[in-house]
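Collaborator request, handled under Task 6.
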Amino acid sequence: MSMTPEHFSTSYRARLVVADRDQSGFTLLEILVAMVVLSIGLLGLAGLQAVSLNNNQIAYFRAIASQQTYDMADRIRANRTGIAAGNYNNLNNTTPVDPNCVANNCTAANMAISDHSQWNANNGRLLPAGVGTVTCFEGLAAGCTTNGPNWTFDITVSWTEKNAAANATQNFTTRFAP
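Structure tokens returned to the collaborator:
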């Protein structure tokens, strides 16, 4: 025997009608509030992602600058004759013409010019507005005007970094004694 609505008691049918009226579901206002909360959360997540990407780019540039200062330190260490002759003292941020020491026999002075040229060309290629300088110190007196075994070099790489306000010049300096 199948149960049809006529077989239900009247009180049971009345309870079903009351239960249907109590469960009305989400209203339009509740859905709109939920969408606003979700939208604010997604905007916050997008902002966090943008800041994260910017900080990652800054860290990348600083790692490249660090690598470039060590590259020049290795170039200076490899040319002891050029150090003794003062060929690495006070290299400025301009890129000289490379004497092409790969194809030609070069003197220690030409090798220092080649190192300076290649290094600053790489700085410009790897960093935005990247340039480098080498400054030599002789104890407390700057300039390394006399030959001496205790010279100290400051190798500085500079580049332009974008931040929220404007572009800012950043510097990374390594001090070493060959």
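The cover message to the collaborator said: "The CA atoms of residues 6 and 13 lie 10 Å apart. The longest strand covers residues 151-162. Please let us know whether this matches your experimental observations."
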